[in-house]
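DM from R.C. (forwarded with permission)

"hey, sorry to bug you on a friday — could you get me a structure for this? deadline for the figure draft is monday and I only need the backbone to look sensible"
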Amino acid sequence: MAYDFQVVIDAAGPHALAEWWADALGWQVEPQDEAFIRELVNKGHASEEDVMTYNGALVWRSGAAIRHPDGLERAPRVLFQLVPEPTPGKNRAHLDIRAGAGNIEAEVGRLTARGAKELHRGRQGANWWVTLADPEGNEFCVS
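My reply, with the result:
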């Protein structure tokens, strides 16, 4: 049996990080149903501490998600989940952005201009990549 999955990334500021990654990948931030959230709070199924206003909209404090513009059939959803502690060290898993050999430098320039930090460059045979960190320090590669 095959399973669907989503990728979950811990974040101190999940809504801002979701926006950053949506821009980085050309994806979309998944809208949250403000009326449904308010209804759950009003009925006591959630508290005011569970929600917040972000960019003028009521959202769940605990996270935000992004998805590929062509939907979940094209790529899995990425959820940015609120956690209180910073990343303790090097990521055990990371995302790779496959820009293509002729586009790596331009993509690294675009992402560092948006707040990513270049960490190092690697090469294996004819393949090369640049490892970056997003604004919260989560590592990813551009290849």
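R.C.: lifesaver. Residues 14-25 form the longest helix (12 residues).
me: no worries. The helical segments are 14-25, 34-42, 104-113.
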